[in-house]
Amino acid sequence: MTTLRLVVVDDHPVVRDGLRGMLGTQPDFEVVGEAAGGAEALTVVDSVRPDVVLTDLRLPEPSGGTLIRLLLERVPGVRVLVLTTHDTDSDVLPAIEAGAIGYLLKDAPREELFRAVRAAARGETVLSPSVATLLLARVRPRHPLTETQLSAREREVLALVAQGRTNRETAAALFISEATVKTHLLHIYAKLEVPDRASAVSAAHRRGLL
């Protein structure tokens, strides 16, 4: 069994302690570091090289999208999973654009959090329902499109996702960035009117796209 190395970043000690205890109940998780702010997070992550960083957004600087970008620059390949109480446009969009692999709210059930950490480690995008709704609203066309109007590239992305490829593997296969893959997936979700990759694959099979 592969052990996932995690770092927890939150400016509230009680939250960090709670997350450490919760994550520690899983045999495949190991919390290898924690930080109370952005600068400390960069130092810790650079030192321990975790698989996944769980971070709040509003922290002592650097924070938000800036912190996410810096983390990804310091440790290429690390997955940044946002865990916060904020789900407004001004919080969600910069975080996703900066490269966060997922965005969960702190009221998520613990089993959802565990699944999200494992999915993030595999390179899969994970979004709270309210966040997915917000992002879909931003990319959904004014006039609903049919499945036949998926672009050629979107069909290629969907086919690779259906094969079980991660975002990174899909990006490598198509010679595009992971961020571009995420954008294509959001457009696919909007066009097929589904919330996630599993639903997109299911809908594509139902409609004869795969």
TrEMBL record:
Keywords: DNA-binding, Phosphoprotein, Transcription, Transcription regulation. The keyword Transcription applies. It comes from the Bacteria. One of its GO terms (molecular function) is DNA binding. It comes from Actinoplanes aureus. Residues 5-121 form the Response regulatory domain. This is Response regulator transcription factor. The keyword Phosphoprotein applies. The modification 4-aspartylphosphate is found at D56. Residues 143-208 form the HTH luxR-type domain. InterPro entries: CheY-like_superfamily, NreC/VraR/RcsB-like_REC, Sig_transdc_resp-reg_C-effctor, Sig_transdc_resp-reg_receiver, Tscrpt_reg_LuxR_C, WalR-like. GO terms for biological process: phosphorelay signal transduction system; regulation of DNA-templated transcription. SUPFAM superfamilies: C-terminal effector domain of the bipartite response regulators, CheY-like.
